[in-house]
Amino acid sequence: MASAELQGKYQKLAQEYSKLRAQNQVLKKGVVDEQANSAALKEQLKMKDQSLRKLQQEMDSLTFRNLQLAKRVELLQDELALSEPRGKKNKKSGESSSQLSQEQKSVFDEDLQKKIEENERLHIQFFEADEQHKHVEAELRSRLATLEMEATQHQAVVDGLTRKYMETIEKLQNDKAKLEVKSQALEKEAKECRLRTEECQLQLKHLHEDLSGRLEESLSIINEKVPFNDTKYSQYNALNVPLHNRRHQLKMRDIAGQALAFVQDLVTALLNFHTYTEQRIQIFPVDSAIDTISPLNQKFSQYLHENASYVRPLEEGMLHLFESITEDTVTVLETTVKLKTFSEHLTSYICFLRKILPYQLKSLEEECESSLCTSALRARNLELSQDMKKMTAVFEKLQTYVSLLALPSTEPDGLLRTNYSSVLTNVGAALHGFHDVMKDISKHYSQKATIEHELPTATQKLITTNDCILSSAVALTNGAGKDGSFFSNNVDFFVASLSYGPKAAAGFISPLSAECMLQYKKKAAAYMKALRKPLLESVPYEEALANRRVLLSSTESREGLAQQVQQSLEKISKLEQEKEHWMLEAQLAKIKLEKENQRIADKLKSTGSGQLVGLAPETAAVLHAPGQEEAAAKTGPEPVQSTSLVSLFLWPLAFEVPDVESREDLIKNHYMARIGELTSQLQVADSKSVHFYAECRALSKRLALAEKSKEALTEEMKLASQNVSRLQDELTTTKRSYEDQLSMMSDHLCSMNETLSKQREEIDTLKMASKGNSKKNKSR
């Protein structure tokens, strides 16, 4: 499984790697295409520059031609100015000169008109070229902006892919290291498993041989000694005591206690409901204090007054059932005899409900026939009558299933074991149906109470009674809901507990066999308790013999031992007195020392010299010693083993051991205990050192793996940084080239604008001059 998982992981990682490589190739193709587009744009810019240069040359030639024409016009004007005085002198010659001047003027006008048309045509061409150039420039700028945006987007994609590629590489390397470690561990485990399998096979072989021998021996013993097998027949097997499941019994008792609490709440709610219904009949529609009620309601009230004799036994039956479930019994349907009594009490309550149902329906019809009943109130009464029928039907259904569950404890053939689970589920469904019916009753009764409260003849007594009935109906609804949810939550446990019975059998056959089994269980428990009685404490035989020898060999009597005890008590009292004396002396010495230190400190403060600086450690040590003695005296004796022989020398003073051998034994035992303690400490230290050595070794291996991975990652980071720097250089170069081209284009445009403005000024001057000439000619 581990190898298959590893192969699956490697395949997924290889697919991701191939996808990343394909994306990288696509991005490379996109970068190459963008470079080709930039080269094409550069060529287009070169062509546009050439066209602009040609246009500039044409503009230069036109300006030169315009200058020539302007000079010629000036010459002609000068000649005209010279020819005017001559015309005054010679009229005859003036006529001929006027003809010549008119001819020249007509020629000049024609030339000027041609030049003006040619200038207009050139101006239109220049304007069209300027507009085309601006349009081309705007297109190129927008395309350049889009290309720059695409380049930034591609760069971001490339950065993201490189980052993702690096993350995947790191992840793959980490997974590879983990998988290598895991593979090594799995190989070790496989080797260990192989060794274990070999050992297990050997053990299995030995066990098979041993068990086969035991089986033959047990079969021979059974054939020779056992008269019959009681588990073979179900009648005899039912008498065997099953294994005691204390947890099952405790849980069953807990569930029975919860059911008892729910039944008590339900009984209280039913009592309140019937009692308050009786009070309502005495009040509405006719108040018994004012007028006599109908005979039907009197009979109905009489029956309702007997509700406690039918409802209270339900609580008592459930209480008896709870008390029958103890820790020592075996709780199954065959042994719960008290369930039959609860079923009988429930049957008597169902008879009570059947008896009062027609009276209740007739009472509601009587309310509908009264003059105070409105149409809405009549509808609510009809709904309540239907709800009461449903309530009686639900209780009958519940009583049927409960009586079926009580059959195994009385009649063995009354209910098959295969039908136990279906009966239990139907009990839960009946409880949920009872909850639904009570919800409808509480809802309809609340609507009825609100309508009756609005009547003008409604009294405070009726209002309070209706509120009490409504609260009891709500309590019944809540109790039914709790019962239903409780039973549905525990139905699985009930179904599982039905299989709890004798071993190797389908269960208890009859209630009689179950009762016999319980008697046998009590006898077995009593026998086990008798066996578990603790024996009285007694002295072992060897120890008693040794004590008898000591008593016989000792020459000391009881009086001598009493004297020794008295002497030891006196010594103890003297030692305690001395201890108190020395404690007081130590306290006095401590007080004197504190006073002396205070005096020295005051003297130092007064003199201000630092001569007694060296006394501080000594005084601190002296102060510390009495504090330690006082702490030791306060804490008292502790169970700490001392390495000194002071405790050993105090033993003779306290107890006066007369024998030398006992002293040697005490010394020997003391040193042996000390040696055992030291060896245990040494073993603990050795185990800690081995643990620390193993941890250090594992950490060193992890450190070596981490260093190797760090080196590989640093190399990959270097390569990635180189690629990033290269891409940044390419980007900066492309940006610079684009900026240079834009600057050149802007310079060309500025120069063209200047030339155009100059040409426009020249054309304006020519127009002005032509207008002035035309005016002069007209004046002439």
UniProtKB/TrEMBL annotation:
Transmembrane spans: none
Pfam family, one: KLRAQ
Domain Protein phosphatase 1 regulatory subunit 21 N-terminal: 11-112
Disordered: annotated span: 84-104
First-listed, main subcellular location of the protein, grouped into a coarse class: other
Coiled coil: 3-72, 162-196, 558-592, 696-730
Cellular component terms per the entry's GO annotation: early endosome; membrane
Keyword DNA-binding: no
Cited InterPro entries: PPP1R21 (IPR040024), PPP1R21_C (IPR049372), PPP1R21_N (IPR019343), PPP1R21_six_helix (IPR019348)
UniProt keyword list: Coiled coil, Endosome, RNA-binding
Composition bias, Low complexity: 95-104
Keyword set includes Nuclease: no
Cellular localisation: Early endosome
SMART domains xrefs: KLRAQ
Molecular function GO terms recorded: RNA binding
Protein name per its UniProtKB record: Protein phosphatase 1 regulatory subunit 21
Organism name: Loxodonta africana (African elephant)
Gene this protein is translated from: PPP1R21
